[in-house]
Design brief:
Order of helices and strands: HHEEEEHEEEHEHEHHHHHHHHHHH
Strand content: 5-15%
Strand order of the largest sheet: 1-2-7-6-5-8-9
Oligomer: single chain
Radius of gyration: 28 Å
Shape: elongated
Helix content: 40-55%
């Protein structure tokens, strides 16, 4: 039967011919505003290039300190989301878009900041108008480059948006090349959880990086300004959007430098909360020795009122290492300086260790009863949650009481 079917003949679908769009009427106005016209096989776009010497200072840091940060990672050999080597090409990347989501959202600005070791170069590609989108994407050369892309919320926003726009133009332009990515927003949340209220890049600049913007536009105005520039042909306000993007990119470099120095505890002073977060982060990455060293340093350097969580996380590592007596001491030190949810967790761990590992049932009973009292005082838990936890602790208390009565 298969022989009778014969061979299937596939008809190749020919790509439709690309029709190059006309140049916008406002080319001259945008050039006078400071942009350079670029033309390729897919249309036109505008470009702005700025170079900085290695000694250029942005806030607390000179850009050349990026090389010191890279050396720290390379020499340490640590596995970490920030870790890079000198062989990698680092590109600090940020976009500006006409909206937050949807197929109708265009990227109108692609910003790149990179170095050749002699200077730093900012390159910004600006969408001439939506009909010239293929020209913008092609000119970015992201289909050719192999790099480590450093962003702020890029994994969740910038890169997915880029992939969407690329897919819509895939008939004509080369395939987008996947890249290694470092998202500094995710790492920033790990570093400054419970320390900073806002995680916007501008807030990080002011609180940690020593940079205060002068004459910046609010980010939410960027798409309005771009669309007005396309409609009116006037690009003076659009240049302010490019400056906003430029500061974002410069701050990505200094944030990477600052965060690296924090993670290696080099030349940076921060709070007990931050260093506790760092210690826990190393523990979560299975780098136990580094995590324990950082947490121990917190307990030794800072006031006991600020070291509760450091003692708690240190106790968890001591328990995993079967250092049960040390873990009990650390948990007891943690109790006065942590909130009720962590106090409940600490009493639970104390009950577990004293019951199952130290066989001190009297102590285990006391810790269990104290924990049960705290559950009743926890204001943020609903009655149903309290009942669920209380039931589990009742079983523990019953088991320990039976052991005491034998």
């Amino acid at each position: 039967m298969k022989k009778m079917l014969g061979k299937k003949t596939e008809t190749k679908q020919e790509k439709s011919a690309f029709i190059k769009p006309d140049q916008p009427q406002y080319v001259d106005q945008w050039q006078r505003a400071g942009l350079t016209l670029v033309e390729n096989d897919f249309g036109v776009l505008f470009k702005r290039v700025v170079t900085y010497p290695l000694t250029y200072r942005h806030g607390h840091y000179e850009l050349q300190q990026l090389f010191d940060a890279i050396r720290l990672w390379e020499q340490s050999g640590r596995e970490h989301p920030y870790a890079v080597t000198a062989d990698e090409t680092l590109i600090f990347f940020d976009t500006e878009t006409t909206g937050l989501k949807g197929v109708g959202t265009h990227i109108f600005l692609l910003g790149f900041l990179e170095t050749d070791g002699e200077e730093f170069t900012l390159t910004q590609y600006v969408l001439a108008d939506p009909s010239n989108e293929a020209a913008l994407l092609f000119e970015s050369r992201l289909w050719q480059k192999k790099a480590t892309i450093v962003t702020y919320n890029g994994k969740s926003f910038d890169w997915p948006q880029l992939e969407t726009r690329w897919t819509l133009n895939q008939t004509y332009i080369p395939k987008l090349r996947p890249q290694k990515q470092i998202d500094l927003l995710h790492s920033t949340k790990r570093l400054w959880k419970n320390d900073l209220e806002k995680m916007k890049l501008t807030a990080i600049e002011q609180e940690k990086l020593g940079f205060h913007r002068q004459g910046d536009i609010p980010g939410f105005l960027a798409p309005i300004i771009y669309l007005d520039a396309v409609k009116s042909g006037q690009a003076d306000a659009l240049i302010k959007v490019l400056h906003h993007n430029e500061w974002d990119l410069l701050s990505l470099i200094t944030l990477y430098i600052h965060s690296t120095q924090l993670l290696f505890q080099k030349e940076v002073n921060d709070s007990a909360v931050t260093y506790t977060n760092i210690g826990k982060w190393y523990n979560d990455l299975k780098q136990k020795n580094t995590g324990i060293d950082v947490l121990t340093a917190v307990t030794e350097r800072f006031d006991p009122t600020d070291t509760g969580l450091a003692h708690y996380y240190l106790a968890m590592e001591q328990k995993r290492a079967s250092q049960y007596e040390q873990a009990v001491k650390s948990l007891i030190k943690a109790l006065p300086a942590v909130d009720i949810p962590h106090q409940i967790k600490a009493y639970e761990q104390l009950a577990i260790i004293t019951e199952h590992h130290l066989r001190d049932y009297e102590e285990a009973k006391v810790y269990t009863q104290t924990g049960m009292q705290l559950i009743g005082r926890h204001e943020k838990w609903s009655a149903l949650q309290k009942e669920k936890y209380h039931s589990a602790w009742e079983k523990r208390l019953h088991r320990i009481t039976n052991k005491l009565n034998k």
